[in-house]
Design brief:
alpha/beta, Rossmann fold, seven-stranded mixed sheet, 6 helices, about 25% strand, globular
Length: about 210
Amino acid sequence: MSAQPSPLPSPLSSTAWEERYQAGTPRWDLGQPAPAFKTLLESASAPQPGSAIVLGAGRGHDAIFFAQHGFAVTAVDFAPSAIQALDEQAQAHNRSLRLLERDIFGLVPEFAGQFDYAIEHTCFCAIDPALRPAYVELVADLLVPGGELLAVFFTHRRSGGPPFGTTPAEVRQLFEPHFEIISLEPVANSVPSRQGEEHFGRLRKR
């Protein structure tokens, strides 16, 4: 009797994401901070620096950008190559960040209530959409009372994923039980490949 072939890893598992990083430059990696975050932190309405957790941080462009603007940043990703690249980039920029090679859904209770901000860019769109209610609960649990989620949501209408698209209506439906939506607007300065496919939100924990 021949041995059964090993099952392929889930396309959303840490193993699968690690393979994507090792294969080359991932297409979700802009090579720079999200333009929406640049606009926010360079504006008159920029949030006051505080403790921030970057979920699904990848190679860390957003995490380092927030650190450069005075935030105490914890960056989380479960792909070892992403964390290694983030560490190298942080050293190159002479920035000190706390790096966690972890599944985001294992952060609570250890890190419950520890952060003023949660930073979201390409994590919400990368998880199984069935886990979105759990993601909302996680973010709420990580934040202090009145803490903010600063998020770039991928609002494309293509089928399948990742990245899995969403809509402003779905974001409101999912988050409003736990968050006051301060703003949720289309991103005007997305990179060309994402024009018309991003919304930026500021959401405050109730």
